[in-house]
Design a protein that fits this description.
Strand order of the largest sheet of chain B: 1-2-3-4-5
Structural class of chain B: alpha+beta
Number of strands of chain A: 20
Oligomer: heterodimer
Order of helices and strands of chain B: EEEEEH
Radius of gyration of chain A: 24 Å
Shape of chain A: globular
Strand content of chain A: 15-25%
Helix content of chain A: 25-40%
Structural class of chain A: alpha+beta
Number of strands of chain B: 5
């Protein structure tokens, strides 16, 4: 049996069949159906546990791949700087002029004695090292050296800050330390096509939370590449979440899952009413007042879609009427190799997963909610940082019910890291279809990080 | 009490914040127990429950609405804090 043969869930409709019942015309990109078919081999466990793998990632992945630095609005004004740290390296991004060509990226290090030029984001007029005062312009040209007479070997034209490659897409700033890397556009491939109807550059950061998770960054990320875990990790969702109806696609460096909401999981042994499917999606319990009601003849998906459409009218205007039910209701989660997760449609979610500094046994999981707006861009939410002993539920005021979902995910992740240390096995066993995006990640990973 | 039926087992999970663990679980045979937010047994005859369901019940709190019930897609009168 091939992966192609396994795409239809054991019970219930395929995702494409669900799209056929939509109240609006469905975007062409949601009709794309491109599963991964990469065999059934195990993924080596050492990849998650060994220091050697982490060192190889630093050498072959983080030093060569396009990666998200920050939102462009964090570098909106001339003089804005942003410090981007990945593993043991630090980079500095600077806006020196307005417009798309007005960004530059440098290693975050003084060319004199190596001190980091900036410790944190902020607006400056020049880049002066706080150790001895060597100073560069925002474009990276040497401006002055204290006691210049004492450095006869330094020629200003040869002492510019080394420039790194930089690019933007979707309101995100990307950086690549490798001067020989392919262009950002070719790296992203179909990504702009997927988001053509939902321009992420026209969003603002409504919430921003970063948390330390005591597990390898790849292990944490992989929990957000599939809906296979929903049946046991988020059982409360099952009456209104078609986990096993999900569609999984791969497009070069980009992958996606679309999981239908407002339909019951094929894995439960009973048929919820449309109202029960709706109540489940809204966490309405037996004694709670109803949040929304399903009118006679309507479906939970239609009610959820209309509620979301209504919420978007003030910002999207007539454009909200063109959005199909699936765009408004379903979980549409995209991954850009190696670690950025911009969700599609108006889900608003963005994740990023990184090693926690130079520690391969812990990770930073970053969550932003990217909301559309009308008129003047609202200010970005301040970042909330949670430690390894904190809980996602501590951020419920800004993340809402999403924090409670992450709280359930977190319950497993550190236990997986402990379990992998104890298993005695050499590999992790993945499914052929539902965990195909994880397998695809490792397929790319093996190309980028040889020897793991 | 805020009650939710486990969609797979049929057991009822409910908030019962009387200092004896925030989650009360009653299985389909009527056997009950009290559990903490991670599904660890505090009291009662019932021995084993779904820890993730306990997490969901505990983090939802004793009343509907508020931040814990807020959707990222839209707000309803009941979920608006």
């Amino acid at each position: 049996m091939t992966v192609q043969d396994q795409r239809r869930p054991p019970r219930g409709l395929s995702y494409q069949e669900l799209l056929d019942a939509d109240s609006r015309e469905v975007p062409e990109t949601m009709r794309w159906n491109v599963p991964a078919d990469l065999g059934l081999a195990d993924v080596p466990i050492a990849r998650y546990l060994s220091r050697e793998a982490h060192e190889l990632e630093k050498q072959h992945l983080w030093s060569r791949v396009w990666q998200v630095v920050c939102r462009a609005e964090q570098l909106a004004q001339v003089g804005d700087t942003f410090v981007y740290d990945i593993a043991d390296r630090s980079f500095l991004v600077v806006r020196h002029a307005p417009g798309p060509e007005g960004l530059r990226a440098f290693p975050n290090a003084c060319l004199h004695r190596g001190r980091a030029l900036r410790d944190a984001p902020g607006r400056v007029e020049e880049l002066q090292c706080s150790f001895h005062g060597f100073c560069w312009s925002l474009q990276g040209q040497l401006k002055r050296i204290p006691s210049e007479w004492d450095f006869p070997q330094v020629r200003p034209e040869e002492f510019e800050l080394p420039r790194l490659r930089i690019g933007t897409w979707g309101g995100f700033v990307f950086l690549n330390p490798d001067p020989a890397a392919a262009s950002l556009g070719s790296f992203l491939g179909v990504l702009p096509d997927l988001f053509e109807r939902w321009p992420l550059a026209e969003r603002y950061v409504r919430a921003h939370v970063t948390k330390v998770v005591n597990a390898n960054w790849k292990l944490v990320q992989e929990a957000f590449l599939e809906s296979y875990h929903v049946v046991t990790t988020h059982p409360q969702l099952l009456p209104g979440f078609g986990d096993a109806n999900s569609q999984y696609d791969v497009f070069g460096n980009v992958t996606r899952t679309i999981s239908p909401r407002g339909v019951a999981s094929p894995l439960i042994g009973w048929r919820p009413s449309e109202q029960e499917q709706l109540d489940s999606a809204l966490d309405v319990r037996l004694d709670d007042p109803p949040a929304l009601r399903v009118p006679p003849g309507a479906t939970a998906r239609q009610v959820l879609a209309e509620a979301a459409r209504t919420a978007l009218r003030p910002t999207l205007g007539p454009g909200a009427e063109l959005l199909c039910d699936a765009e408004l209701v379903d979980s549409y989660f995209v991954n850009v190799f190696p670690n950025a997760h911009p969700w599609g449609a108006y889900n608003q979610i963005f994740y990023r997963f990184r090693p926690n500094g130079d520690d391969h046994r812990s990770a930073l999981m970053e969550v932003m909610l990217l909301a559309p707006f009308a008129g003047e861009r609202p200010p970005s939410a301040s970042e909330i940082r949670l430690g390894g002993d904190d809980h996602w539920r501590d951020a419920v005021e800004v993340l809402g019910s999403l924090a409670r979902v992450f709280d359930q995910d977190e319950f497993n992740l550190e236990a997986v890291q402990r379990g992998l240390l104890s298993t005695g096995r050499t590999g992790v066993t993945l499914s052929g279809y539902q965990e195909g995006r994880i397998r695809h990640f490792h397929h790319l990973y093996e190309q980028w990080v040889p020897g793991t | 009490m805020r009650r939710l039926v486990h969609p797979l087992t049929g057991a009822t999970y409910e908030w019962a914040d009387d200092g004896l663990g925030p989650v009360q679980v009653t299985d389909r045979q009527g056997v009950t127990g009290r559990f903490d937010r991670d599904g660890r047994r505090i009291a009662g005859e019932l021995v084993s429950v779904d820890p993730e369901m306990c997490r969901w019940i505990a983090s939802g709190g004793p009343t509907a609405g508020g931040a814990a019930g807020r959707s990222r897609r839209f707000e309803t009168p009941e979920t608006t804090s």
